[in-house]
Design goal:
23 strands; single chain; disordered N terminus; 15 helices; Immunoglobulin-like; alpha+beta; 2 domains
Length: 536
């Protein structure tokens, strides 16, 4: 309980807003422990068995459900978490993600209950804040090392399409259990969030905008149309509802060449609607799919991401020390959220007028695009595109030896300084930026802006010099002593904190701080001042 109280107090000090009543739930951790249960949310067909059997195999779709232990509330928002893993099963994906707990024949088909370290961390944190969180596994399988780019595009768009179908199947599963089974998971079906990590970010973004199948062949500049297979003189779309099922996963899909079933309908008659999309990495197949009827977006991405573009570029298949393979041009978080802003989809977040440290840190780098957080990985490592990730190196090295894959080696190429401590600092930022925005978008309470954002003239505040080289002086009028001084980096992490003060003058020394921009927050008896401090 002490740790939960500490985190709660820290976040309350950082966020410059509150809510009616308790003002804590869904903003801060309020539960000590979390309960996890496993079940299946549907049944569908995996293509991973095709090379050995010639046909797809029906598989149950697993989900791990995280709930706050001892919670008496029964109408809680639901986050459906979509793991990463390159749309391939672990360990064949050559990476450290996509790991699941499973057994027997199901394991051989890449299905199971997700247990990646950052996934478990984020699901647990959200559940301690009062959410119900469902970590789903979904059907994977494509050919990233195909000899032709055409085949790589074809198999990738179909992998993402199956992910969208399975995510929407999960949405309907919870709505069905709500209505037909007495709401066993205690959720509010009008407050559902898609949260995708890495390749799961492709799924969450696509699920939020793909409301018309025709967007795939017609609103994508032809990039998802392949060779003429039917012989009618026109190229054929890579995805066809009669073959692959509809965009919701509510119709049968049959391969006409051999009669093989490729998609099964699940929970037909229930809505696939949800209310908010979150992505950590990934990209949108095409921003032309995005229109004014779509959802608000909260996006986290490293602008230097070498495999999924921050703005626009090719999806690249990493191959360890070899050159990556190009697949298809997509649009990343910057262009997706910027268009969502122009369409008015970000209005509820903009109307908050947040000025907390996470917002300030994001706004230094995001060109004022609300809902976009450009996460900065290790500046010395241009490949550090998922700094929130970590894994058990001993376990991964063992997997690598047994499977003959490069899981641990490849992971360390892009994140050599990974650790639980490093990843959790980034997750602090991700949760801190997400929480107030989701609170508003999902209508989880009423915000009351606090009167604690002070102007320099209110307290006679002076900061000299700024930019600083070795030190800077903070001064205020005699009637307004400073009570605390906190310095944050641009990922919202505390790098210096002075508390228990009662002074009108204090010198902040650079010491070991590196060159760059920081957020300086000065606390007073009634209110705070936040400034951007530059160190040369």
């Amino acid at each position: 309980m002490k740790q939960a109280r500490f985190v709660s107090l820290l976040l309350m000090a950082v966020w410059t807003f509150t809510a009616y009543g308790q003002g804590i739930r869904y903003l801060h951790p309020v539960f000590d422990s979390v309960s996890v249960s496993n079940t299946f949310y549907g049944m569908n067909v995996t293509i991973l068995s095709v090379p050995t059997t010639g046909k797809g195999t029906r598989v149950p779709l697993p989900v791990s459900i995280y709930s706050p232990t001892g919670d008496t509330v029964k109408n809680r928002p639901l986050v459906i978490y979509i793991h990463t893993g390159n749309f391939l099963p672990f360990p064949q994906n050559q990476g450290t993600a996509g790991r699941t707990v499973n057994g027997g024949a199901l394991a051989a088909l890449g299905m199971g209950f997700p247990v990646d370290s950052p996934l478990v961390e984020i699901c647990t944190r959200l559940a301690k804040m009062g959410y119900v969180v469902a970590a789903i596994d979904y059907r994977t399988g494509w050919n990233p090392v195909a000899s032709t780019q055409t085949e790589r595009v074809n198999t990738l768009i179909n992998a993402a399409y199956r992910g969208v179908q399975d995510f929407r199947t999960a949405v309907r599963f919870f709505k069905k259990t709500f209505k037909e089974a007495g709401n066993p998971y205690g959720i509010d079906t009008s407050k559902i969030v898609a949260w995708g990590q890495g390749s799961g970010g492709y799924v969450s973004l696509a699920s939020s905008v793909l409301d018309n199948y025709l967007d795939i062949p017609l609103a994508s500049k032809g990039k998802f149309i392949g060779p003429d297979i039917t012989g009618d003189g026109f190229g054929d779309p890579y995805v066809l509802p009669p073959v692959h099922g509809d965009i919701y996963g509510t119709s049968l899909g049959i391969n006409p060449t051999n009669g093989d079933t490729l998609s099964l309908p699940n929970h037909v008659g229930y809505s696939s609607d949800f209310q908010l999309s979150v992505n950590m990495g990934g990209a949108l197949p095409d921003t032309l799919w995005l229109d004014a009827t779509d959802l608000p977006l909260i996006s986290f991405q490293e602008p230097r991401d070498p495999f999924a573009p921050y703005k626009e570029g090719l999806v690249l298949v990493p191959r360890g020390t070899m050159a990556p393979l190009p697949v298809v041009e997509v649009q990343g978080s910057y262009l997706a959220v910027e268009k969502a802003r122009r369409l008015g989809l970000q209005k509820k977040m903009i109307d908050l007028k947040l000025n907390d440290v996470y917002t300030q840190a994001a706004n230094v780098k995001n060109d004022g695009i609300e809902g976009l957080y450009p996460i900065s990985g290790n500046p010395l490592n241009p490949l550090d595109s998922d700094p929130w990730n970590w894994w058990d190196t001993a376990f991964m090295a063992s997997v690598e030896r047994q499977a003959g894959t490069g899981n641990n080696t490849n992971g360390l190429l892009t994140n050599p300084d990974m650790s639980a401590a490093k990843a959790r600092r980034y997750i602090d930022t991700i949760i801190g930026y997400y929480a107030p925005r989701a609170f508003a978008v999902l209508n989880l309470g009423t915000f009351v802006n606090t009167p604690d954002l002070l102007k320099d003239t209110d307290v006679g505040f002076k900061l000299m010099p700024n930019p600083m080289v070795n030190q800077t002086l903070l001064q205020t009028n005699p009637d307004f002593p400073m009570k605390s001084v906190t310095l944050y980096d641009l990922n919202g992490r505390v790098v210096r904190k002075l508390s228990g003060l009662n002074t009108n003058s204090i010198t902040v020394h650079r010491n070991e701080l590196s060159q760059g921009a920081y957020i300086l927050q000065v606390g007073f008896k009634k209110g705070v001042i936040s400034k951007t401090l530059l160190i040369q």
